[in-house]
Amino acid sequence: MADHRKCNACLKSVANTPSLNCSRCKAEYHHFCINYSLPEYNAMSVELKSKWICLQCQSRERKGGDNSNTPVRSNNSVALESPHLEFVTQRTKARTEKNCSCISPSSIRDIIRE
Predict the structure, then answer these.
(1) Hey, is 105 helix, strand or coil?
(2) Going from the N-terminus, what domains does the chain have, and what CATH number goes with each?
(3) 52 phi, psi to nearest 5 deg
């Protein structure tokens, strides 16, 4: 019976080729498709090979580590620490006078009457 295992990167057969299986998703990769030279692959321990995680599974891991020791702020302390308005610069827009060189309402009435 033919071996139908395929590399998850190049989709070619992994039969008779050193490969690594992801310990999470069980996908299989040629050693060269994941940038391991044959000497690097051979130098890996059996334990390391069995715990290897592919890049796709690594990217799904939560970033930033454990934040369980981060103190939680109460609602009252947030209100007390909010920035005060005295430190905010508020600028008013320059007012333009409404003296327009446009046609005045009386001029419009005269034009309509004509």
Answers:
(1) helix
(2) 1-62 (3.30.40.10)
(3) -65, 140
